[in-house]
Amino acid sequence: TQLLEQSPQFLSIQEGENLTVYCNSSSVFSSLQWYRQEPGEGPVLLVTVVTGGEVKKLKRLTFQFGDARKDSSLHITAAQPGDTGLYLCAGGPGQNFVFGPGTRLSVLP
Amino acid sequence: DADVTQTPRNRITKTGKRIMLECSQTKGHDRMYWYRQDPGLGLRLIYYSFDVKDINKGEISDGYSVSRQAQAKFSLSLESAIPNQTALYFCATSDLTGNLLDTQYFGPGTRLTVL
User: Fold this and answer.
1) Contact B13, B81 (CB under 8 A)
2) Which member of A79, A81, B20, B50 has the lowest number of beta carbons within 10 Å of its beta carbon?
3) pLDDT mean by block of 10 residues, chain A; 109 residues
């Protein structure tokens, strides 16, 4: 079974700060996704990365897929309270993907 | 209206009771999934269905059963609920996207408490 680890588990920062969260595995993934889950709602897809070394940007969010396709990072620039939520990575070969445990981010005004 | 709906949104029940959670979708997707979410464990797959005639066990199917009544409906049953099935349950749908991971569209979740 492929496993995904995420770090840190919890992160609390002030508005305007930058942060990076990580998703790691000992296995190679064909592609990887990042989701954000807000309280009382289901996860919503942010991005899919498929190529080793790939970097994608979504406004203030930058996603990177590791060269070996075993890890990924999410960097948020100038965090805002609206970024608060649980960030989940998911990866796998084909359709049999697994989710990491998530990083719970709190951005304080 | 939401594309993926779940009923009920909250349920409190007692040990040994039979519980059914229902999921409906208007996205027209063939693939549907049931997950449970526990703090610190992320989302774990219970069952999934790639079409009406296809049902597959996921990582943690013991104690659960499912029924795919139609393309749009996928229900999860706990035949005899136990306290460690207390969790947040999510239904999701996806559509085939070739070699990439499917994009999963999640419902709002059902919070189940088994006393």
Assistant:
1) yes
2) A81
3) 86 97 90 92 93 94 94 97 96 75 95
- Residue B22 CA to residue A74 CA, distance in Å, equals 34
What is the phi/psi pair of residue A49, to 5°? -120, 140
Q: What CA–CA distance (Å, rounded) separates B94 from B33?
A: 8
**What pLDDT is recorded for position A97?**
74
Question: If you average pLDDT over residues B13-21, what whole number do you get?
Answer: 97
Cα–Cα distance, A99 to A88 (Å, whole number): 7
Residue B99 banded pLDDT, cuts 50, 70, 90: low
Nearest residue of B to residue A97, measured between CA atoms: B101
**What's the Cα-to-Cα distance from A63 to each of A32, A76, A77, B32, rounded to whole Å?**
10, 9, 12, 27
Question: Could B107 and A94 be called an inter-chain contact, meaning their C-beta atoms sit closer than 8 Å?
Answer: no
Q: How many cross-chain Cβ pairs, A to B, lie less than 8 Å apart?
A: 60
User: For the residues B24-46, what does the mean pLDDT come to?
Assistant: 91
DSSP, residue by residue, B23-55: EEE-S--SEEEEEEEETTTEEEEEEEEEETTEE
Closest-CA residue of A relative to B99 is A94
Q: Provide the 3-class DSSP secondary structure of residue B102.
A: coil
Residue A39: its pLDDT value, please?
87
Q: How far, in Å, are A48, A106, B4, B25, B96 from residue B28 at the CA level?
A: 22, 35, 10, 7, 12
